[in-house]
Specification:
With about 120 residues, the protein is mainly alpha-helical. The protein is built from 7 helices and 3 strands, in the order ααβααββααα.
Length: about 120
């Protein structure tokens, strides 16, 4: 419950929700902080605050690549939240529930993502 509240509070702000949704779409490769600042027109300090909040609530990951930091969606964190929210859907009668996005399309790991991207 505590993790779900933390994750939902992280998404309960328009800029953070927009950034998170964008990074989910980008995939495991993520995007640099500089690119995100340009894309969303946010000052560096504001963007840094939002990215930090999303990392702290378990929905983003940050990885240093040389001098830049690349942010990507934490698909495990997102899927844990989705599972928590739908855990007792339809009174626990899973056969009545439509599959969640995570069940239909599990997030690929970085290597799978690269192979699929390169095949297209």
């Amino acid at each position: 419950m505590t993790d779900a509240v933390l994750a939902l509070s992280g998404l309960a702000q328009e800029s953070r929700l927009t950034i998170f949704r964008h990074l989910v779409q980008v995939g495991p490769e993520g995007e640099s902080a500089g690119s995100l600042a340009t894309r969303f027109g946010l000052p560096a300090a504001t963007l840094s605050f939002h990215l930090s909040q999303l990392c702290q609530c378990g929905l983003l990951r940050a990885q240093r690549e040389g001098r830049r930091i690349v942010y990507s969606a934490d698909y495990d964190g997102m899927n844990r939240l989705m599972c928590f929210l739908t855990d007792n859907c339809c009174g626990g009668r899973k056969e009545l529930c439509p599959p969640t996005a995570a069940e239909e399309h599990p997030a690929p790991n970085r290597e799978q993502w690269r192979r699929e991207r390169d095949d297209h």
